[in-house]
């Protein structure tokens, strides 16, 4: 397959260089049949490439037919408005994987999915369509989603089958159940990520309270994220981690939609943030790798752009010649894994594009890195006996150029560094919780305390000043019976307490109504504002942000609400299970797949060289 793609790319180059138009005479006659001159052309190019003449002729004929189909489709689109979509089917369909489908662009995504399922024999609910590197949205029209004439559409199957016709109903039913489970898993993934991202957006008032939402730099320390970008970044990172989990299980058809969603959300973040960490660059590699493993690289028109973007991001993040990375970490051995995959994908892309010289250059760079990153299994065993994990052993050995003693010291030091960082983060959270408890003891809700402390950068005294200057923040309550002291009218005893402190009786009563009988808050606010309430403060709880009273129908819904909460917890836990414990998990690879692919493509390149020498 790869060799055929190379020949197609090379022959397309020759045709372009020789300015040959296959859809015109003498290569195509007036009836659009193949002309006799095509055989002579095949002979010329087969001699040039030192390839089988029949094979070259067959590929040139495929290129000619495709050019005629495109021309006919273009004319048809101009006259009728009916567009042609090139549909790429899953790898299991060995033949006829590329097909043309005619459709109007005003139909919805759901209608197109139905049409593709009916035309090519899929079950409609168990396929996803990717166009322009985005999942097709079922509810919008093709035109609204930017789908145009001659666009490429890739079909992803949620169920993995090896034959079109099932020999028994039980097997078909099992695979259908598998597809349903995978679809539900995708929906739970989306729901779980939405919940986590919403929490991230809400924790602008207290970002330290959700450790699983952290993004860290190369040292492992958390990076402060602008509130406006927190939700998009968390969705991007969440989809990326979920996609990587599917990649590890080699479930590429399910991984790709997650990775494309991650790319979409990363694009909503500022350039400066993306240059700080290597997540975005790694994502570009993962997307191209996924297309390659699905044998659909030709559907990714901008593979070169993505690989160049990854290389640029690595340079911005790691510095020229990895200088910044070495300064921070002391080495760059582990990150070489990323560059190996980058060079490998660049080699593959160039080979598929017919650029044999560039392909050879990148593949040899990948092979050289593979040699540098090779790990002696006996050295891994030595580190395992010292109590380290296999992952720690691989990462440590690559960081220390294979030296076992240095690797052991490196792993131990890294453990201690991370333990110190976690200790500092834990202490920071402990102080934050103490400050929250102090403010709650004064009558403020958890939410109000979090918001004030965030605005005051954690300073308790400043947070209290903010709360006193903004008494309306008290209404950001937690729907907690202990903090919800609503009452019809203040008690005379509470009014007398405020009067005894020197406040006017009418003002004291108004303050107690505002703060629902909380004497401490009423006294603090009146004292802070010179014995009166702020003029912009609503004088009744009904005008505030207080939650409505619970109705009987609300109570009736308690059971379903509890069920929804359980489902949300399950969805979130499923996401968290796929977040790796080791912060450098994305750098850990056995490189077994890469080794085989490098050898495969280098053999293709060597065959080309041999043919060239003979020629």
From TrEMBL:
InterPro entries: NUB1, NUB1_ubiquitin-like_dom, SASH1/NUB1_homeodomain, TPR-like_helical_dom_sf, UBA, UBA-like_sf, Ubiquitin-like_domsf. Residues 563-586 have a biased composition (Acidic residues). The gene is NUB1. The keyword Coiled coil applies. SUPFAM superfamilies: TPR-like, UBA-like, Ubiquitin-like. Keywords: Coiled coil, Nucleus, Repeat. Pfam families: SASH1_Homeodomain, UBA, Ubiquitin_5. This is NEDD8 ultimate buster 1. Coiled coil: none annotated. Residues 539-562 have a biased composition (Low complexity). One of its GO terms (cellular component) is cytosol. It is found in: Nucleus. Residues 532-586 are annotated as: Disordered. The keyword Coiled coil applies. GO terms for biological process: positive regulation of proteasomal ubiquitin-dependent protein catabolic process; proteasomal protein catabolic process; protein ubiquitination; regulation of ubiquitin-dependent protein catabolic process; response to tumor necrosis factor; response to type II interferon; ubiquitin-dependent protein catabolic process. Residues 374-414, 424-470, 489-529 form the UBA domain.
């Amino acid at each position: 397959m790869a060799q055929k793609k190379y020949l197609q790319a090379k022959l397309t180059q020759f045709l372009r260089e020789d300015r040959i138009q296959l859809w015109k005479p003498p290569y195509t006659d007036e009836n659009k049949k193949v002309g006799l001159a095509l055989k002579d052309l095949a002979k010329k190019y087969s001699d040039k490439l030192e390839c089988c003449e029949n094979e070259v002729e067959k590929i040139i004929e495929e290129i000619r037919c495709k050019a005629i189909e495109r021309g006919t489709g273009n004319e048809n689109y101009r006259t009728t408005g009916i567009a042609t979509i090139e549909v790429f089917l899953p790898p299991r369909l060995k033949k006829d994987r590329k097909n043309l489908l005619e459709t109007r662009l005003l139909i919805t995504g759901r209608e197109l999915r139905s049409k593709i399922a009916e035309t090519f024999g899929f079950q409609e609910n168990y396929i996803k369509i990717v166009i322009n590197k985005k999942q097709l949205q079922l509810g919008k029209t093709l035109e609204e989603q930017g789908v145009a004439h001659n666009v490429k559409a890739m079909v992803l199957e949620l169920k993995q089958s090896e034959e079109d016709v099932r020999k028994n109903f039980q097997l078909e039913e099992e695979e259908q159940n598998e597809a349903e489970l995978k679809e539900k898993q995708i929906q739970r993934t989306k729901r779980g990520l939405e919940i986590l991202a919403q929490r991230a957006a809400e924790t602008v008032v207290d970002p330290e309270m959700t450790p699983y939402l952290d993004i860290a730099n190369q040292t492992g320390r958390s990076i402060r994220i602008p509130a406006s970008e927190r939700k998009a970044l968390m969705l991007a990172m969440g989809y990326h981690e979920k996609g990587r989990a599917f990649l590890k299980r080699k479930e590429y058809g399910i991984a790709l939609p997650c990775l494309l969603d991650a790319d979409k959300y990363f694009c909503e973040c500022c350039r400066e943030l993306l240059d700080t960490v290597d997540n975005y660059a790694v994502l570009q590699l993962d997307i191209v790798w996924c297309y390659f493993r699905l044998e659909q690289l030709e559907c990714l028109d901008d593979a070169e752009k993505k690989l160049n973007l990854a290389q640029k991001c690595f340079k911005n993040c790691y510095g020229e010649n990895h200088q910044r990375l070495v300064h921070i970490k002391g080495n760059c051995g582990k990150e070489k894994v990323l560059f190996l995959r980058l060079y490998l994908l660049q080699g593959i892309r160039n080979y598929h594009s017919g650029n044999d010289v560039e392909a050879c250059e990148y593949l040899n760079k990948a092979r050289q890195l593979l040699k540098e990153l090779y790990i002696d299994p006996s050295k891994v065993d030595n580190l395992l006996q010292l109590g380290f994990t296999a992952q720690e052993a691989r990462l440590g050995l690559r960081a220390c150029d294979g030296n076992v003693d240095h690797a052991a010291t490196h792993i131990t030091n890294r453990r201690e560094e991370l333990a110190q960082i976690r200790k500092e983060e834990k202490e920071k959270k402990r102080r934050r919780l103490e400050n929250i408890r102090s403010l709650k003891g004064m009558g403020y809700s958890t939410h109000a305390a979090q918001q004030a402390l965030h605005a005051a950068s954690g300073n308790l005294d400043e947070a209290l000043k903010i709360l006193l200057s903004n008494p309306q923040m008290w209404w950001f309550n937690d729907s907690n019976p202990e903090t919800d002291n609503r009452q019809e009218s203040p008690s005379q005893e509470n009014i007398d307490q405020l009067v005894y402190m020197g406040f006017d009786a009418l003002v004291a009563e108004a303050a107690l109504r505002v703060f629902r009988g909380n004497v401490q808050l009423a006294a603090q606010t009146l004292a802070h504002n010179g014995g009166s309430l702020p003029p912009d403060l609503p004088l009744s709880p009904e005008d505030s942000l207080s939650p409505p009273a619970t109705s009987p129908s609300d109570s009736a819904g308690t059971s379903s609400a509890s069920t929804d909460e359980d489902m949300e917890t399950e969805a979130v836990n499923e996401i968290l299970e796929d977040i790796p414990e080791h912060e450098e998990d994305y750098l850990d690879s056995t490189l077994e797949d890469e080794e085989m692919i490098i050898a495969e493509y280098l053999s293709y390149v060597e065959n080309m060289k041999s043919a060239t020498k003979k020629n």
